[in-house]
Amino acid sequence: MQLSALSEVTGVSIATIKFYLREGVLPRGVHVNATRAEYSEDHVKRIRLISALTEVRSLPMSQVKEILQLVDAPLPDPSETLSRAIGALPPYVDDAPDGEYPRAREALSALDYIYDTRSAGVKQLNSAIQAVKDANLFWEPEDIAFYGQIAMTMAQRELQPLATMNPKDIVSFAVMGTAMYEPVILALRRLAHQTLNIRMMQQRGAPGGPPGGPGAPGVPRPSGTTQAPVPPPAEASAD
Question: PROSITE patterns recorded for this chain (predicted)?
Fold first, then answer.
């Protein structure tokens, strides 16, 4: 397909595609003649991948380049490749002057995790726990075990397809999975918080209002909220 068709299929403007070509994140098409190049389905997939990183993850082009370079040419050490990919994702945390991350070390000592003490993930965890404590939010020693087990369960689910992949595809999938699953998890967690808050308000009810509060029979739900339909109870069979 020509450049105009590539733009139409992907929904990305010709100017943006040319920018991707100049930046080197999109391979050039096959030259048919001096003024025309042909593009394939691989270019479509690549553009959608770039769009996901820039739009869904809001990554700057410099970080997109780093992630795509790791996908295209993984390092000899897969764990180093993944660590570099994590480092290309926000939040961006500076190295500690002494190279120590005590909050993360204390937390990870309670988990059966294998990790490099210099990895970006350790720095991010240390910074995140410190921020929670600085904000005087609820945080107990057992919380790390709770969150750690949930995180491990999610990772095991997400990485199931790796069993049938070749080594290069494994690295690519792990890198992109790290980048793209996180927004889904974050959005679901926020919606879960919203759901529980609404349910608590419903259970408490408005002062002087009917038992059950908003959402109870005959009581309107909070404006703008919705809920999946509840199927009617099965009818009892006649004997």
Answer: HTH_MERR_2
Single-letter amino acid, residue 158: E
The SS3 of residue 92 is coil
Q: What pLDDT is recorded for position 232? A: 53
Model pLDDT, residue 219: 46
Q: Compute the distance between CA of residue 179 and CA of residue 183 in angstroms, rounded to an integer.
A: 8
Give the chain's residues under pLDDT 70.
206-239
Give the tokens for residue 103. Answer: 């909050």
Domain ranges in the chain are: 1-56, 57-202
How far apart, in whole angstroms, are the C-alpha atoms of residue 129 and residue 84?
21
Buried b vs exposed e over 49-73: b needs ≥16 C-beta within 10 Å? bbbbbbeebebeeebbbbbbbbbee
Q: Which pLDDT score, from 0 to 100, does residue 209 have?
A: 41
In angstroms, what is the C-alpha Rg of the chain?
24
Q: What is the DSSP string of 138-181?
A: ---HHHHHHHHHHHHHHHHHHTGGGGGS-HHHHHHHHHHHHHHH
Sign of the dihedral defined by the CA atoms of residues 18, 19, 21, 26, in that order = negative
Euclidean distance between CA atoms 133 and 127, whole angstroms: 10
Polymer length of the chain: 239
Residue-level pLDDT at 217: 47
Token pair 């391979």 is found at 27
- What pLDDT was estimated at residue 123? 93
pTM of this structure: 0.71
H-type alpha helices, 24-140: 41-51, 61-72, 78-87, 102-108, 120-134
